[in-house]
Amino acid sequence: MVFHSLRVVVAAAKFNLIITLRFFSGTAIALRLFAPIMTLGSAWVLYNQIYRGALTPEFGTLDYLSFITIGNAFYVFVFAAAFVVGRVMFWERATGTIEATFMTPMNRLAYMAGIMVAAAINSLIDFAAVFIIGILFGFHATSFNVLLFLASMFLTALALFGVGLIVNAVTLTLRDRTTTANTLMILFLVFSGLVCPIELMPQWAQTISKALPLTYGLKVMRASLLGTATFDLVYELATLSVIGAIYICVGALTLKLIERNLKKRALFSVF
């Protein structure tokens, strides 16, 4: 069973990478980088031209532009990798292959995991590009802890895989992908500490941020690149692992229940 699931992961990843290369477009890359470029540019103008490099004492000793660059790089990774998984069933339905896909004996989670592996590999281009662009705006890493860096990406990807499973269940039920994905991206953008430290947010916003895996992944990544040690890394990594496991379990169970319900009602390919 394990070997069969691994074959499904590899096959799904290989297929999606081939499709990506076949339809690779510089315009598509430019559109994917437009939002982080605008965010970094706006941060540079605000920090250097308007506030003249002044920060509130609550912000701490962190370099603002480096803080923003890491947040945007993670945002690109989330958008390009995690939400590809959330749209799998929508595109299966749109292309007319959803019924055939669910008739196969393959493991559904392995199939989606393969798609996310391909998307994650593809998103590394965007991820690296944001850091390169960030250097032009003033980003500089004060340290580089490889283990923490890789742990933050891997554990966050696992948690976001669970989020993607839940989004698939919602997509199958509501026949919608854009509204669901955009709503989640706004939640991540506002409450995960991408552009503002969690500590500066109102208490109710900090409560929401504690339920989002990106919050903990960002803290660990910033620690790996900026050398910050203002939090307990063991706690952050453990919390991220637990949240990731919860999201995956909830996502897998929800998707299974939705699949069973749609089979009974013959609504797989109905828009």
Give the helix/strand layout.
Elements: H1 2-22, H2 26-50, H3 64-85, H4 88-94, H5 98-103, H6 108-137, H7 146-174, H8 178-191, H9 203-209, H10 213-226, H11 233-265
Notes on the structure:
By secondary structure, this protein is mainly α. The protein has one domain. The chain has helices spanning 2-22, 26-50, 64-85, 88-94, 98-103, 108-137, 146-174, 178-191, 203-209, 213-226, 233-265. The longest helix has 33 residues, at 233-265. The model has no long low-confidence stretch (mean pLDDT 80).
- Largest sheet report: none
Tally the helices.
Answer: 11
Overall geometry comes to globular
State the total count of DSSP E strands. 0
Percentage of residues assigned to helices: over 70%
Return the string of H and E elements.
HHHHHHHHHHH
Number of domains: 1
Our Rg estimate from Cα atoms comes to 20 Å
Terminal residue distance: 34 Å
Low-confidence stretches: none
Strand proportion, as a percent range, falls in under 5%
Class per helix and strand makeup: mainly alpha
Overall pLDDT confidence: 80
